[in-house]
Amino acid sequence: MNFPRKIVYHVTNIENRLSFVKLGASSKFSSGLGQGRGLYVWTNPLGAERHLKYKRSKNSECEYCIIAINSEKTRVDEWIPNFEIHPDLAMQLMYTDIESMRTLPNIRTGYGIIKPDKSRIEGRDNIVLGFERDKDSCFPGEENYEISLPMQPLFAWQIFNSEVAGILGPIVDAYRTKYPKEFERENAKWFETKDVSGCRYIGKESLPVERIVRCAARED
């Protein structure tokens, strides 16, 4: 199954634009703040423009641009939703297949080591993840601890949440590795709709740049 979008949009520091044009857009570009290695893009220009202005608000001294990237020849299995923007998709996967999730090996993240076999569904669709502290853990407190992620209400996720993405991304990557056919079916369903506005490219080939779109000068 081919990826359903021909053009996707990446926001970057304007100084990087020439290297993108020369070398193409690589999936080795970013680790997604711990979410997973990939090229992070928007599937529509409006999302990219909003993200560009958000980046500008965080760093007014830096100038950014939008790069239009040709994704026409890629397959849907080379793309994964961005769970910083769409955490509900990962949560739904965990909720509907919790027994498979519990068979995954321990998963190292920047928030500690996730122990899938210690994870469970509790209360009204809360997914409780078991953690073990390690040297990279950024949570203080007990050696072993739990983090509860609610399925509902979804309005709780309507802001970028890099901490949640840094937990969900590695879980989904581990699931994708152990259950590739099951994940491929689920991933294809996600991209059959137009709801996925942010995603990451994980394919091996660099993608060609169509054009540079510069949208927010310093005076904006």
Supply the key terms.
220 residues; alpha+beta; four-stranded antiparallel beta sheet; three-stranded antiparallel beta sheet; 28% strand; globular
Walk me through this protein's architecture:
- The chain is of the alpha+beta class and 220 residues long.
- 30% of the residues lie in helices and 28% in strands.
- It contains six helices and ten strands.
- It has helices at 17-23, 45-58, 87-96, 98-101, 162-178, 180-192, and strands at 7-13, 39-42, 64-70, 79-81, 107-109, 112-122, 126-132, 144-150, 198-201, 209-216.
- The strands form three sheets. The protein has a four-stranded antiparallel β-sheet with strand order 5-6-7-8, covered by helices on one side. Strands 1-3-10 form a three-stranded antiparallel β-sheet, sandwiched between helices. Strands 2-9-4 form a three-stranded antiparallel β-sheet.
- It is globular.
- The termini are far apart.
- Mean pLDDT is 85; it is low at 153-159.
Provide a compact summary of the structure.
This protein is an alpha+beta fold.
Query: How are the strands ordered across the major sheet?
Result: 5-6-7-8
Largest sheet: 4 strands, antiparallel
Topology, number of strands: 10
Q: Give the count of helical stretches.
A: 6
Unreliable spans are 153-159
Task: Summarize the SSE layout with pairings.
Elements: E1 7-13, H1 17-23, E2 39-42, H2 45-58, E3 64-70, E4 79-81, H3 87-96, H4 98-101, E5 107-109, E6 112-122, E7 126-132, E8 144-150, H5 162-178, H6 180-192, E9 198-201, E10 209-216
Antiparallel strand pairs: 1-3, 2-9, 3-10, 4-9, 5-6, 6-7, 7-8
